[in-house]
């Protein structure tokens, strides 16, 4: 009987034929930590009493969550990371490089068929390029840093099939919000999700990363897709390692199969304070906003910048709205600049900040005041997420966020469909 | 042997308590001292909560406790705040691993009838959770053997040091 993608990748990495429910001790191809988690990685690693990392090429640290540092406490953590990198001769992406989930695939650290651990919950992002990647805590990461392995409970898998053709003004973010609305914040806990269907195949690799990124918002361990030619081309241009694409076998067992037809999908918006609290944009168009944010590991990629720029061109951000934009990496920032997108943003009244996670995690670069309302392209709208528990966060696509920033209230991007 | 009485502490929010709520990014990104962090647990959803926690209490919650961010500061802060264990209907997976890695016990059980301030007894050997204040008893979902092993060894760091790697019986 065939195996799911998760069962196949975990089997390939433990040398045994493992199935859902089994415990497997696996070799890990790549692992990393960011500045919110690396301090404890370093502490735990030192407690293990080993004096070297398992493979210097298979580990990176990324300073992205508060970059550059907004206060002394964070500065001390950044210093600790830089010293650890220096002492052990390890690779570090310092401030300005970008958001970990953008730069790790972009710099070719991961490829199809890999098993990857990150000390960050959105590590599931690389599922879109056929990588079993999942978030763990700092001590789990430290163990892998020491020995190159970790233990896994092989997950059951939910198969999600997305049919139809996306209407103008509707994007992969809307697809994943629609799926999360249905499956719920708890609906895929401990499980892997496999995404299939013509609507997925029609998406660019960038747009697919948005979908896998949010698998964890349903509790999933991974959000996997097959590697088609687009993916193979994408990784070939970035990773030096040979891709090992993994498919599900014939007769693979699924815990559930879900089908969606997105041909008539409206732009979707997640309302405060949970990601599965999703409505069609039409139901929210009078909601006044104070801030808009374009960026993050969910939607800070070049095509997200392009979509927003099309809507913002020759338009002005509403005078009551602060629109903060953070490209997800230095390379995206440079490309956006070369294409004239940054000029469009600045001329329309946006504030473009350096690549990083800041506003999404409430560390700096746009902390909300009491009662303020934000619309963001991020993946979480928990109370307090953007730094103030007395504020309100709506999540939507780059198009919906850009349209809303112009109107000063939540707006339907299909109004700008001729530009898109 | 392992039969202990504890006070139950319960938040107004029941389900989907995420790790941002356990310890806000406002603190975890800049404070490294776990003791200092533990003073701020649940501040965004119940600012008075942290001051009511006593050593040996158990935290009681509903579905999907610990969802969201992978921050290990969440179980660490709960442990340092004095919680002996967390009892919930279900847990999110990263938090689940993190807690056992730190040697903190998580128990899956029906928690619908347990109120804040109830006296609760955990009987791991018999797989029962008793609400002594109410005279009710609930079945505990068996703790997976890997997690039991990590608990016995005092967390994953001690386990790793003891065996020089992973050593599970399965």
Percent of residues in helices of chain B: 25-40%
SS class of chain B: alpha/beta
Q: What is the N-to-C succession of helices and strands of chain B?
A: EHHHHEHEHEEEEHH
Total of helices of chain B? 8
The percent range for strand residues of chain A is: 15-25%
Could you describe the largest sheet of chain B, including whether it forms a barrel?
A: 7 strands, mixed
CATH architecture of the largest domain in chain A: 2-Layer Sandwich
CATH domain fold name of the largest domain in chain A: Aconitase, domain 3
Helix tally of chain A equals 15
CATH C-level of chain B = Alpha Beta
Structure write-up:
With about 425 residues, chain A is of the alpha/beta class. Chain A folds into 2 domains: about 5-260, Aconitase, domain 3, CATH 3.30.499; about 270-420, Aconitase, domain 3 (2-Layer Sandwich), CATH 3.30.499.10. In chain A, about 30% of the residues lie in helices and about 20% in strands. Chain A is built from 15 helices and 18 strands. In chain A, the strands form 5 sheets. In chain A, strands 4-3-2-5-6 form a 5-stranded parallel sheet, covered by helices on one side. Chain A has a 5-stranded parallel sheet with strand order 16-15-14-17-18, with helices on one face. In chain A, strands 10-9-8-11 form a 4-stranded parallel sheet. In chain A, α6 (about 170-185) runs parallel beside α8 (about 205-215) and α11 (about 300-310) crosses α13 (about 340-350). Chain A is globular, with a radius of gyration of 20 Å. Chain B starts with a strand and ends in a 7-residue tail after the last helix. The longest helix of chain B is centred in the middle third of the chain and has 9 residues, at about 75-80. Chain B has helices spanning about 20, 25-30, 35-40, 50, 75-80, 95-100, 145-155, 155-165, and strands at about 5-10, 60, 85-90, 105-110, 120-125, 130, 135-140. Chain B has a single domain, classed as Alpha-Beta Barrel (Aconitase, domain 4), CATH 3.20.19.10. At the A-B interface, α2, α3, α5 and β7 of A face α2, α5, α6 and α8 of B.
């Amino acid at each position: 009987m065939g195996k799911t993608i998760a069962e196949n990748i975990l089997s390939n990495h433990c040398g045994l034929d493992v199935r859902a429910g089994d415990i497997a001790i696996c070799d890990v191809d790549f692992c990393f930590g960011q500045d919110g988690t690396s301090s404890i990685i370093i502490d735990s690693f030192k407690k293990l009493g080993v004096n070297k990392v398992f493979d210097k090429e298979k580990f990176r640290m990324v300073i992205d969550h508060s970059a550059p540092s907004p206060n002394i406490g964070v500065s001390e953590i950044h210093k600790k990371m830089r010293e650890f990198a220096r002492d052990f001769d390890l690779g570090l992406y310092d401030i300005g490089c970008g958001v970990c989930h953008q730069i790790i695939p972009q710099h070719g650290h991961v490829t199809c068929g890999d098993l990857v651990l990150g000390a960050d919950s959105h590590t599931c992002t690389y599922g879109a390029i056929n990588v079993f990647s999942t978030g763990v805590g700092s001590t789990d990461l430290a163990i892998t840093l020491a020995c190159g392995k970790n233990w896994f409970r092989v997950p059951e898998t939910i198969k999600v099939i997305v049919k139809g053709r996306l209407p103008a003004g509707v994007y992969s973010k809307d697809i994943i919000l629609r799926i999360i609305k249905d499956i719920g914040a708890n609906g895929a806990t401990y499980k892997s999700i496999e995404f299939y269907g013509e609507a997925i195949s029609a998406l660019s690799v960038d747009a697919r990363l948005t979908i896998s990124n949010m698998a964890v918002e349903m509790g999933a361990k991974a959000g996997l897709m097959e590697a088609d030619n687009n993916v193979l081309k994408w990784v070939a241009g970035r990773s030096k390692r040979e891709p090992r694409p993994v498919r599900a076998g014939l007769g693979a067992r699924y815990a559930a199969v879900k089908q969606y037809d997105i041909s008539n999908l409206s732009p979707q918006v997640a309302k405060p304070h949970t990601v599965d609290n999703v409505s069609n944009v039409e139901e929210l168009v009078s909601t006044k906003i104070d801030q808009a944010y374009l960026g993050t590991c969910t939607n800070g990629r070049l095509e997200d910048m392009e979509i927003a720029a099309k809507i913002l061109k020759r338009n002005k951000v509403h005078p009551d709205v602060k629109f903060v934009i953070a490209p997800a990496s230095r390379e995206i920032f440079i490309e956006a600049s070369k294409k004239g997108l940054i000029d469009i943003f600045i001329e329309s009244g946006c504030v473009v900040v350096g690549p990083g996670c800041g506003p999404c995690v409430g560390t700096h670069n746009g902390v909300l005041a009491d009662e303020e309302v934000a619309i963001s392209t991020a993946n979480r709208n928990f109370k307090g997420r953007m730094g103030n528990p007395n504020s309100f966060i709506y999540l939507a696509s780059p198009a919906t966020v850009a349209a809303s920033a112009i109107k000063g209230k939540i707006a339907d991007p299909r109004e700008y469909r001729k530009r898109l | 042997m392992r039969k202990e009485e504890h006070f139950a502490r319960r938040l107004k929010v029941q389900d989907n308590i995420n790790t941002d709520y356990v310890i806000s990014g406002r603190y975890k990104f800049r404070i490294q001292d776990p003791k200092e962090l533990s003073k701020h647990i649940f501040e965004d959803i119940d600012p008075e909560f942290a001051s009511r926690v006593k050593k040996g209490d158990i935290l009681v919650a509903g579905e999907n406790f610990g969802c969201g961010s992978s921050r290990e500061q969440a179980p660490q802060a709960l442990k340092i705040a004095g919680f002996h264990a967390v009892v919930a209907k279900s847990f999110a997976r990263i938090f689940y691993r993190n807690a056992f890695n730190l040697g903190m016990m998580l128990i899956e059980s029906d928690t619908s009838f347990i109120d804040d301030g109830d006296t609760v007894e955990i009987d791991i050997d018999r797989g029962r959770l008793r609400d002594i204040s109410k005279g009710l008893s609930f079945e505990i979902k068996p703790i997976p053997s890997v997690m039991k092993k990590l608990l016995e060894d005092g967390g994953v760091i001690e386990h790793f040091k003891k065996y020089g790697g992973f050593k599970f019986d399965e």
